[in-house]
Structures are given as structure tokens and as C-alpha cells.
Specification:
Helices cover 45% and strands 10% of the residues. With 119 residues, the protein is mostly helical. It has one domain (20-113): Winged helix-like DNA-binding domain superfamily/Winged helix DNA-binding domain (Arc Repressor Mutant, subunit A, Orthogonal Bundle). Strands 1-3-2 form a three-stranded antiparallel sheet. It is elongated.
């Protein structure tokens, strides 16, 4: 107990721990199905240019999130002649990814509302 606060350490299931960069990707995919460049664009536009995601670091982040079951991906059907027929790989958040986002959003709200107990 610290300053009148008790912590309940019982948890049914631990939410996934994510790095700040992974958190941004999950937020961009929350309710969206996007390909890599769109994810980077979403972050840049939503932050009015303050956050930029280099493509070279985006794909390892996506791979790690997918490996942990937080997102899933698939190849699009469209062929892009301007890129020699290359297809886009699309990403979407999974139920586990949604639960992780919901958990850290809930934590943030609780932290904003938290006030010390009177002593």
C-alpha cells in the first residue's frame, strides 16, 4: 500500500506489452485496413507532421506485431502496373490487438482521473 492506494495484482489475462512505436501502429489500424505506406501517412497526417514513420522501420514493427497476434495481414488482389504488377500487403488489427489498445486507453483515462488520497 502506497499513500492509501492498494494495487489489485489479480489479472485474468495480461494485455500485450507494446512499445510506443507499436502502439502508434495499433492506433492507426484501429478500425482501418491499411497497407504500409497508408499507415505511415496516417501517423504523419494525424500528427500534422510531428510524427514520421520511416518505411524501413515500419515493416519490422508490423512483422513483430503480426508474430505476436496483434495484427494480421494479407496480400491485396490489385495488380499495380506502375510497380511491375506488385501487390500491396494490407494489415488490420486483431481482437487481441483491440484488447491491448482498449487496455492502454483505459489506463490513460484512469491515470488522468487519478488523485492522491487525502492523508
Amino acid at each position: 500500500m502506497v499513500r492509501g492506494v492498494t494495487l489489485d495484482t489479480r489479472q485474468v489475462e495480461q494485455p500485450a506489452k507494446v512499445a510506443p512505436r507499436e502502439e502508434l501502429v495499433l492506433l492507426a489500424l484501429y478500425g482501418n485496413e491499411l497497407y504500409g505506406l497508408e499507415i505511415a501517412q496516417a501517423m504523419e497526417e494525424a500528427s500534422t507532421g510531428r510524427k514520421q514513420f520511416k518505411i524501413g522501420s515500419l515493416y519490422p514493427t508490423l512483422h513483430g506485431l503480426e508474430k505476436r497476434g496483434l495484427i494480421e495481414s494479407w496480400w491485396g488482389d490489385e495488380e499495380r502496373p506502375e510497380l511491375g504488377g506488385a501487390r500491396r500487403r494490407y494489415y488490420r488489427i486483431t481482437g487481441k490487438g483491440r484488447a491491448t489498445v482498449d487496455d492502454f486507453q483505459h489506463f490513460r483515462q484512469e491515470l488522468i482521473r487519478w488523485r492522491p488520497s487525502p492523508t
